[in-house]
Design brief:
The complex is a heterodimer.
Chain A (H helix, E strand, L loop, with lengths): L14 H8 L8 E4 L7 E5 L5 E4 L4 H14 L7 H17 L1 H20 L11 H10 L4 H13 L4 H7 L23
Antiparallel strand pairs in A: 1-2, 2-3
Chain B lengths: L12 E4 L5 H10 L4 E4 L14 H8 L5 E4 L3 H5 L32 H5 L14 H15 L14 H13 L4 E2 L38 H7 L3 E4 L3 E7 L5 E7 L5 E5 L2 E4 L2 H11 L24 E8 L15 E2 L15 E5 L4 H7 L7 H8 L4 E8 L8 E8 L5 E6 L4 H20 L4 E5 L34 E3 L14 H20 L4
The chains are: A mainly alpha, B alpha/beta.
Chain lengths: 190, 522
């Protein structure tokens, strides 16, 4: 799962260049969208340059929308965007090899943005309150687009060791001798 | 003759499947000097291969061949192509079982008599009694090393158990302990003691839990009388002009087909695959499938009434530390129709990691409520509710329009809850939630059934040939050298986890087959 998190070091540009690029197109939220094809594709970076993601098929705007959707579907305020970005990165890979899938994603995002405009916002991502964005998601809940995204997140988000750490789960234990001497019966509040 | 055996050797017993039924039967027959070829659809994974990580382990072990679903059960909506969570590997589902080893209660062998006529239920008394099975339960408990039997100590209770026990005491339940488990509390029978790894469902890397994969199968192989063919996916059982089984057709890992001749065939592929195989083996002599003169092959599918309750507390529980099924309350397993349903249920601790919790806690749910539950993962305790469901003739396995990788019709699993199942589940949810509330839960989560792990009844045992598929020895009423050796022979489901009973029936069946072979009855 970590292999799909393209951290800064995997991008062949320095953070300062990244920041320069990021100013060309900056979303109002925490994600910075970087256009251009200098890397053979476009890429998306966090506005604080903490991480960046190369994109093969989807536009940076589309990926930023998917990341916001991921956060709104499973909102964990202690999770950074990198965890959500990692969770939806696979859709870009799929889109790169499947034109029909790419079209389904892009049309889904277009519909979501259209609905946001009907509601008086410039886009889904620019809709300020979570509850308003959730209302927009409710409107497309029965679509293949939404179910593909939500279904993918169940594994894509919650199967990340970095997420387990956030949730306090200690995971694999055999190599540590199990939990027999590591708190299997340490409950003290009953 | 000793293993390996020739395809043309028609003196062998062919066993299809190597789990609790087939794996045990294979060893028991081999110990008696009988030549056995066991055909296993999956590969061989042993403790050193098991993975302490839920999804990779699922990829390694689970049966994920094409299956379809229908009916009003929630699994059909949540997991349309995964009706059951069972294993495709040597050892079958004994690789991932939790280890709970309970005997069926006396009255549960005669539910037609005990419960009376229940609308829509196809109840039937078993053709055997608890007394018939008791000697075999004793042998099975000794073989598996079941705690709280044979002088074996119970396992220590983990945090998840301690929450359950404190709640049980508050609720006035009298029978709560760390279970009768086929998990070593101390080294025994060449197997290590449990180190509380917390990955019972992923295959026990300690080998502390009994599994036919690394107990019965190697024991049988050591006799020289057992050959296990891995990645041998059985397509069809063939018969001769006299209507007796003559051989078993299977595809190897490259898809090449082979016909193994045999004297006897035993089907032990689980309650979904076994009836599917009998139906897929239809011929001009048996147009409705083998062993199906009663029309009951594939019918009366039971999956146990199940559900889970998770409780969230102010303080940490870390339910995942230690054995998955760490304790049990048996007070509700009695038949007390005053509760609004017949039959009973067990309450057993369960824990799953965050990856599976996300998938199974409330399938399809999203938003802040769901995420908040996940945020409370470490403060969560869990219990699984497992009880007797009603056999219904309309619930069952049929051949799907979809095909598997070998071009054979896949199984469709149809299930509707019986009103009795719904009433029992609602009662169980209420009791489970009240239990966690009694020890200070801040949230309780009544969680819907997971894909079925206890698949039962689709080739049921009956005294009369018109009522079921096999007799009291698991032998086909129609074809005397065809046996069913897995949980599909269960006449009714009872409240208890079925593995111990499947093992006991396999030991009993081995005695019968050996006796019949030596007396030329087979």
């Amino acid at each position: 799962m970590e292999s799909i998190i393209h951290l800064e070091k995997s991008v062949s540009r320095s953070p300062s260049e990244l920041m320069k690029l990021s100013r060309r197109q900056l979303l109002k939220r925490s994600l910075a969208v970087c256009g251009g094809y200098a890397l053979g594709g476009s890429f998306l970076a966090a506005s604080d340059a903490a991480w960046a993601m190369e994109l093969k098929a989807l536009s940076p705007e589309s990926m930023a929308t998917l990341i916001q959707m991921a956060r709104d579907i499973y909102p964990h305020d202690s999770f950074g965007d990198a965890l959500y970005a990692a969770a939806v990165k696979g859709h870009d890979d799929t889109a790169a090899g499947d034109a029909e899938f790419k079209q389904m994603i892009e049309e889904g995002i277009a519909l979501l943005n259209n609905n946001a405009m009907q509601a008086g916002n410039s886009s889904y991502v620019d809709t300020g309150w979570e509850s308003d964005r959730v209302a927009l998601l409710k409107g497309i809940e029965d679509s293949t687009f939404f179910s593909t995204l939500r279904g993918g997140l169940v594994v894509g988000l919650y199967n990340q060791p970095a997420v387990w750490e956030k949730l306090g789960y200690e995971g694999s234990s055999f190599e540590k001798g199990g939990y027999l001497t590591r708190g299997f019966d340490d409950i003290n509040w009953l | 003759m000793s293993a390996p055996f020739d395809l043309t050797d028609d003196s062998v017993v062919v066993i299809i499947g190597t789990g609790a039924g087939g794996g045990v039967l294979a060893n028991e027959l081999a110990q008696k000097g009988i030549s056995v070829v066991a055909l296993e659809a999956g590969g061989r994974h042993l403790p050193q291969d098991y993975i302490n990580d839920e999804w990779p382990s699922f990829g390694q072990l689970a049966w994920t061949d094409m299956r379809t679903t229908s009916g009003s059960w929630q699994v059909a909506k949540d997991f349309p192509n995964l009706p059951a969570w069972i294993v495709k590997a040597v050892g079958g589902s004994t690789v991932h079982w939790a280890g709970a080893s309970l005997r069926i209660q006396e009255h549960e062998f005669r539910t037609k008599t005990e419960y009376g006529n229940i609308d829509g239920a196809n109840l039937l008394d078993w053709p055997i009694t608890l007394a018939d099975l008791e000697p075999y339960y004793e042998k099975a408990e000794n073989k598996l090393g079941v705690t709280r039997t044979n002088g074996i100590e119970g396992l220590p209770g983990n945090n998840n158990f301690k929450v359950m026990k404190a709640g049980a005491d508050k609720m006035g339940y009298k029978n709560c302990h760390t279970g009768r488990m086929a998990i070593n509390s101390a080294p025994r029978d060449g197997r290590a003691a449990c180190q509380q790894l917390g990955f019972c469902f992923q295959g026990c890397k300690m080998g502390a839990k009994w599994s036919s994969a690394y107990v019965d199968i190697p024991q049988g192989e050591a006799t020289g009388n057992l050959e296990v063919r891995e990645h041998a996916h059985v397509l069809k059982i063939e018969h001769d002009n006299n209507g007796q089984v003559s051989g078993v057709l299977y595809a190897d890992k490259d898809g090449n087909q082979h016909l193994q001749k045999c004297r006897v065939a035993c089907v032990a592929g689980n309650s979904i695959e076994s009836p599917r195989l009998l139906l897929n083996s239809a011929s001009s002599m048996f147009p409705d499938g083998l062993a199906n003169s009663s029309g009951m092959v594939g019918k009366n599918y039971m999956r146990h009434m199940t559900g889970s309750v998770y409780g969230i507390f102010e303080n940490p529980v870390h339910m995942y530390r230690g054995t998955t099924m760490a304790g049990i309350i048996t007070d509700e397993s009695v038949n007390n129709p005053d509760r609004g349903f017949v039959g009973g249920y067990e309450m057993e601790t369960v824990s799953i990691g965050p990856a599976f919790t996300a998938a199974f806690l409330n399938p399809g749910a999203w938003g802040r409520e769901f995420a908040a539950s996940m945020d409370s993962y470490t403060n969560m305790a869990g219990m699984w509710l497992v009880g007797e469901d009603m056999p219904q003739e309309s619930n069952g396995i049929t051949l799907s329009d979809e095909k598997d990788q070998h071009g054979m019709p896949a199984a469709n699993v149809h299930f509707d809850d019986h009103p009795n199942d719904v009433a029992m589940r609602n009662h169980a949810y209420k009791q489970g939630m009240a239990l966690y509330d009694s020890v200070g839960a801040t949230q309780t989560l009544p969680t819907p059934p997971y894909p079925s792990t206890h698949n039962l009844g689709t080739n049921r045992m009956s005294a009369k040939p018109s009522d079921g598929v096999v007799n009291k020895h698991g032998q086909s009423h129609d074809i005397k050298n065809l046996f069913v050796s897995d949980g599909s022979q269960f006449t009714t489901g009872a409240a208890e986890n079925p593995t111990l009973t499947i093992v006991s029936l396999a030991i009993r069946q081995a005695d019968y087959i050996a006796e019949q072979m030596s007396s030329k009855g087979l």
